[in-house]
Design a protein that fits this description.
The protein is of the alpha/beta class and about 240 residues long. The protein has helices at about 30-40, 55-65, 80-85, 105-120, 135-140, 185-190, 200-205, 205-210, 235-240; strands at about 5-10, 25, 30, 50-55, 70, 95-100, 125-130, 145-150, 155-160, 175-185, 215-220. The chain is globular.
């Protein structure tokens, strides 16, 4: 059977309120964007990897290690909108959005997500991992949480701890959302034609634009852990994992 053409796009901005220049931050002597790029290249279901940016400093960095780059407009309200511009000339049927601050992203999970998306009737897919309700991650607003229905589709994403545990019995442990998405081509084109939604603006989570439009988002669950880099201090955690 012919393999469905899939492209992985890593949206990368230089400007960040909490961590300016984050994609170029060195982790074990290598720029973070290079760690992410090389992980994406290891995924067997990915045909091509590109970085989408509007910054010449990131462009120069990616080209220095032999990566592919697509320059995009500065005005995009979200990474997904930037990705849509980056793949305009691609004939890929599945587009994977890999966040540029996930240097420990698992190539195997990328492959699992692509395969699940192709087989599913969902228009979009993502990944989640259970976490302890008492953990620092559960209370951290930088860590996005997700809840799903019985069919494995997303109900809601939030920076708050969801679901709320009212009576003590924890039958619904929280799940941490990974910064990894898959889109079917026709849906991505539709998604970026919609204006930013009220919930998206409130939580600063672009996937809520899809939720508000009633889109099916498949959530595959894993027990693998990953550490996104939100602050300079997070680099120490990633370097410890790499060692």
């Amino acid at each position: 059977m012919k393999k469905t053409k899939t492209i992985a796009v890593i949206p990368a901005r230089y400007g960040s309120t909490r961590f300016p220049g984050k994609p170029l931050a060195l982790i074990a002597g290598k720029p973070m964007i290079q760690h992410v790029y090389e992980k994406a290249q290891q995924a067997k279901q990915i045909n091509e990897v590109i970085v989408a940016t509007d910054d010449d400093r990131i462009k120069d960095c990616v080209e220095s290690f032999g990566g592919k780059i697509v320059m995009t407009a500065e005005s995009h309200p979200s990474g997904t909108d930037r990705i849509a511009e980056a793949v305009e000339k691609s004939d890929a049927k599945i587009i994977v959005n890999i966040q540029g601050d996930e240097p420990l992203i698992s190539p195997k999970i990328i492959d699992q997500l692509v395969c699940a998306t192709i087989k599913s009737n969902a228009q979009m897919g993502t990944v989640a991992v259970p976490i302890q309700r008492s953990s620092n991650e559960a209370q951290d607003p930088n860590i996005v949480k997700v809840i799903t229905n019985s069919d494995g589709y997303a109900i809601y994403f939030s920076r708050s701890l969801i679901p709320f545990m009212r009576d003590g019995a924890d039958d619904c442990p929280p799940m941490k959302h990974w910064g990894l998405y898959s889109y079917k081509r026709n849906f991505l084109e539709k998604f970026v034609s919609w204006e930013q939604s009220s919930l998206e603006k409130c939580e600063k989570l672009e996937q809520l634009r899809a939720v508000e439009h009633g889109v099916k988002i498949l959530v595959i669950k894993t027990d693998k852990q990953t550490y996104g880099v939100d602050t300079p201090e997070d680099i120490l955690k990633v370097e410890a994992e790499l060692q």
